Amino acid sequence: MHGNVKQETYELHEFKISPKTIRSLKTVEDTVKTEQEKRRIESEVPPFYQFDESVAGNRQAVASSLFDFIIKEKQANVPSLEDIEKEEPVKTRSEQVKDVRKELTKLEEEEPSLRLTDEAIASLLTNEASRLDKMKQELVKIIGEELSKPIRSGDLSPVRYEVERKLRLSEAIPPAELQTLITLGRSLVVETETINKSRTEKRIEEEKNAVEPTRILQGQVIVREGQFIDAEIYRQLELTGLLKNQSSNKPVIGLIAYVFFVMLIIYLHFITWQEDSYTKKKSLLIVLAIFFILVSIMKLLSLIDKEFDVQVAFLFPTALAPLLVKLLTNERMAYMTTIVTAATAGIMLLEGFSAIMQMEIALYILFGGIISIYLLGSNGRRSNILRTSLAVAGSNILFIIFYLQMTQSTYELSELLFYCIAAITSGILSGALTIGLMPFFETFFGLLSDMRLIELSNPNHPLLKKVLTETPGTYHHSVMVANLADAACESVGANGLLARVGSYYHDIGKTVRPNFFIENQHGSVNPHDELPPERSRDIIIAHAVDGAELLAKHKIPKEIVDIARQHHGTSFLKFFFVKAKEMGQDVIEDDFRYPGPKPQTKEIAIISIADSVEAAVRSMKEPTPDKIAKLVKSIIGGKLNDGQFDECDLSMKELKKVESVICETLNGIFHSRIEYPD
What we know:
Elements: H1 2-5, E1 22-23, E2 28-29, H2 31-44, E3 49-51, H3 54-76, H4 81-85, H5 93-110, H6 118-125, H7 129-147, H8 156-169, H9 175-188, E4 193-195, H10 197-209, E5 215-216, E6 221-223, H11 231-239, H12 250-271, H13 277-305, H14 320-328, H15 331-348, H16 359-376, H17 382-407, H18 413-445, H19 450-456, H20 462-470, H21 472-491, H22 496-505, H23 533-553, H24 558-566, H25 574-582, H26 602-618, H27 625-641, H28 652-669
Antiparallel strand pairs: 1-6, 2-5, 3-4
């Protein structure tokens, strides 16, 4: 599988010409391009501005404080009557300026732009306090009006010009003080809208997070044939892992994980299967052998698929796995194998730019396999296998229609014709390979399939011809038992075909000494009349052992051999036991029992009932439904009381069904006939 998932790489060099067109085999994020896009977005995100209503009030307070200092100094230098009487000296202008400068020191430290020259302070001190108050109010009003609006750093110049314009038009400003107030007013204009750093950073982060990652898409052309490989193209080739020096172990690790996953599924399937260890081991070997064949077919298809423009994978026999596994093991195993096969095919039959699995192929095999399991049923005849394969071909065509329509592509007539032929071939090939491979599996694993049973039921089989020619009475008896056992087995869910074929061979041991069995004597002398009971006992009992040995010698499947050996179980030969007693012999009951073992399966138990019932009814002179019913009930009850069903899984409910079906079948065979006139 590794060769199918190993990424193709190229021997390419930077600043060289590309020898072929190269596409990305997977979708990957181009982190460099993504980061470049984020940086571009970051540079384009506008800052978040926040308006501060307190700025206007603060600047007005600064203007008021400045004038208050000057007015205070002005008022402090006006002499009172007491000062005049005492002839207190009045401060000079220079001293006043110094006092004001002291008051303004703290304010100037906080507002460096508000530095007034000594000449400007001296000029302001020449005005009356009332006029200074009017100038203050006018300046505060103008500053309040302008700073109540959103002002950013780029808007300062026009706002300062507007403050200057209003001051020039104001009648409250003396011409001599106009320039001083203009200087003050312009310096008081500051930003009222500032950048909120935290909000701005949050907005940038949101915009960056909203950026979709830049991806190199699966199937995207990275470099075309003959194109110059520049640094950017080479970087993208490295990013997508298409260069020779970029071999990765990831596919190997992934396949190992997949194999362990399949192993876990198989393990869980077998650990929960209530069956003996021998059967489990044999079934596991069968499943693995079939799986190996399927993987080999997948590998072959994957090798030739590259030579065609269409998906050759649609030729894969979708129903081969479930048909083989169901016929050789059971339905539950067939479902498990179908699922694992579909998943494996999806990995091995990758085409184009599928990243992990070719889903259309996986679904194609999964649907075809499941449909074949349902349609095959319990009939393993060749004709049924072929019918099932034709039905699978029809379902494959239906899936092809689904696939072609969902791709929404335009296909040429030749492509459409190929896909239809591939769908039909896949179905028919499934049936043909199943029929062809079945004999090999049966021979190698010693299996008994429906197909093998049908072959064994052929009257031209050497052993059946031996029974027919050497013991015709036994042959007729066997056919009657087969009819009874088949019907009874089907009624309780047992294998009716196995019971029928087993019945044909169950008395094969009678061909060793045919004349010692009453159905083959045809009115001649009964040799048992001249033999002691012990000798007759040994001859009768021997037919079960002789039959099993004869069947084993001819390589007949073990299930048929077991029927011949166990169909009498440990039954009691009452006739010869009584005969020995009457002759005064000291005998015990166990000496007149078959060696067994007791029936181990439902099929053998039912054959033992049918065998006894058929022989007993045939000996009745005038069988009627009531007589037959009483006889069948008596025989089943006797075997049940004798413990002959203790080692098989027949329930009492199933025994009632068997009794009913056998009675119905016998009534059909021994029905009343019209007495025709001479």
